[in-house]
From TrEMBL:
Entry superkingdom: Eukaryota
Presence of the UniProt keyword Membrane in the record: yes
Entries under InterPro entries matching the protein: Exostosin, Exostosin_GT47
Protein localization: Golgi apparatus membrane
This protein's name: Putative glycosyltransferase
Topology of the protein relative to the lipid bilayer: Single-pass type II membrane protein
Pfam families given in the database record: Exostosin_GT47
Transmembrane regions: 24-44
GO cellular component, one term: Golgi membrane
């Protein structure tokens, strides 16, 4: 049977196909071999060029330690990364990693626009699931109830516990604006039995600036506060504080529960400084809110054609990441990296740049993301392991570029690789989501206050323990 089959194939080959077609089969293996050799040659050449480029661009890794001796009389002190960061993520890591990381960046960029998994449509959407979000948001706005621990105006620490009487200003205004908005909202209830959550209204930023407390006294104040409400009220003891929350925008808030360790594991933290490194921050329990510099009026009218500069950053050099950014790009004509204050209004740079860089300083949180969105500038996130605000709602890939800090030397290549069409998509989505990064007095739907409330709504317990009449006392 085998011989007959072979004979049949031979006869078909001899009589059914012309000589030119048979010749094609003789040269096919040779053609494939030559093509393979050509591809290998191209790969080797490309890899060599990339490695050469990186060996030049990573000089900054070798020279950075000397930069730490910048004149400390005029600059803020340089602080190291947190002790518990992985050594592999350190900015001063082995420079030989950079070629691999560059290719990883190229993959990340492709994944950003859905070029790898073919899911291009989903990566263009500003929300993970807009329909579910809208439906759940409406239910939150209708149902969520917060019980606020009451405090009188005669309390010695009324400045810490009560909402401010004046307009909130400055870099940490989000914390006070949240409190002010909540106290005037329909979410507050005086009936603890219908409350989904309990708000401890102490303000970290106010404690920090109160000389009676100061930074070092914050853990003692919080420890005493928790002790007082557990003795005076029965609400904490039902869940061990798991249905309680506090708000902090200043990064010093991460030490608030240092002397109340059990409470730290249970209490919901709504914070601006949200990084995965501190053991006190647990993303499934806690939530990130945006740090916003309050601005009056409507956002400016934006025209993409006016953005002549590729990227922009200005700020204090107060971290190794910012040192690296300044060292590599301070003299570049397309990326404007500036140390210190600008002589011109910041708004001009935000409006004149396509991308605006958010760089980790002392902590991951700054108001630059909200600033960039306000002015229609696509944010670049240069802050590793940062739990981005509203990340379980918003698809950050659709309106920002997230870059590992080790890729600072190839930042321009990454940004230049984004086409005009891709940039238009990013900016269009940035315009869609910027309403979530603004505060209003009074609050309006979908602003920073309501989005923060929605984050709390998602973290409420589905089981509530009802108090008996004998337990209800104040």
């Amino acid at each position: 049977m085998g011989k007959q089959s072979s004979s049949l194939v031979y006869q078909i080959f001899q009589h059914r196909f012309p000589a030119t077609f048979k010749g094609f089969f003789y040269f096919l293996p040779i053609s494939l071999a030559l093509t393979t050799l050509l591809l290998i040659f191209i790969y080797i050449s490309t890899t060599a060029n990339v490695t050469k480029t990186h060996s030049q661009s990573t000089i900054y890794l070798q020279t950075l330690p000397s930069l730490i001796n910048i004149d400390q009389t005029s600059n803020p002190p340089i602080v190291p990364f947190e002790d518990n960061e992985d050594d592999n993520d350190n900015l001063f890591a082995d420079p030989s990693r950079t070629a691999r990381l560059y290719r990883a960046s190229q993959w990340l960029l492709g994944n950003l626009f859905g070029l790898i998994d073919g899911n291009d449509t989903n990566n263009k959407e500003a929300y993970h699931d807009g329909d579910i979000f809208l439906q759940d948001y409406k239910q939150m706005n209708k149902s969520l109830k917060i019980y606020v621990y009451p405090h009188s105006k005669d309390d010695p620490f009324a400045n810490v516990l009560l909402p401010p009487d004046t307009d909130c200003k400055g870099n940490y205004a989000s914390e006070l604006m949240f409190k002010k908005a909540l106290m005037e909202s329909h979410f507050v209830t005086k009936d603890p039995n219908e409350a989904h959550l309990f708000y401890m209204p102490f303000s970290i930023s106010s404690m920090r600036s109160d000389p009676r407390i100061d930074v070092h006294g914050i853990p003692d104040f919080v420890q005493n506060y928790v002790s007082n409400i557990t003795h005076k009220y029965p609400y904490w003891n039902r869940t061990g504080g798991a249905d309680h929350f506090y708000v902090a925008c200043h990064s010093i808030g991460k030490i608030a529960f240092e002397k109340a360790l059990v409470a730290r594991l249970n209490v919901i933290q709504l914070v601006c400084s949200s990084t995965y490194f501190p053991s006190s921050y647990l993303p499934h329990k806690d939530a990130s809110m945006p740090q916003v510099w309050p601005r009056g009026g409507d956002p400016p009218n934006l025209l993409t054609s006016q953005r002549k500069r590729l990227a922009f950053f200005a700020g204090a050099v107060n971290s190794p990441v910012r040192i690296a950014l300044l060292k590599v790009w301070e003299n570049d004509t397309e990326i404007f990296a500036h140390f210190g204050r600008l002589n011109t209004p910041y708004s001009e740079q935000f409006l004149g740049s396509k991308f605006c860089i958010h760089v980790k300083g002392f902590e991951v949180n700054t108001a630059r993301v909200a600033d960039a969105l306000f002015y229609g500038c696509v944010p670049i996130i240069l802050a590793n392991h940062y739990d981005l605000p509203f990340t379980d709602i918003l698809n950050w890939k659709s309106f920002s570029v997230v870059v590992h800090h080790i890729d600072i030397p190839v930042l321009k290549k990454i940004l230049q690789g984004i086409s005009n069409e891709e940039f238009a998509m990013l900016q269009s989505n940035a315009m869609r989501v910027r309403k979530h990064f603004q505060w209003h007095t009074p609050p309006i739907d979908f602003d920073a206050f309501h989005m923060s409330m929605y984050e709390l709504w998602k973290r409420r317990s589905v089981v509530r323990v009802r108090l008996t009449p004998s337990m209800e006392f104040m």
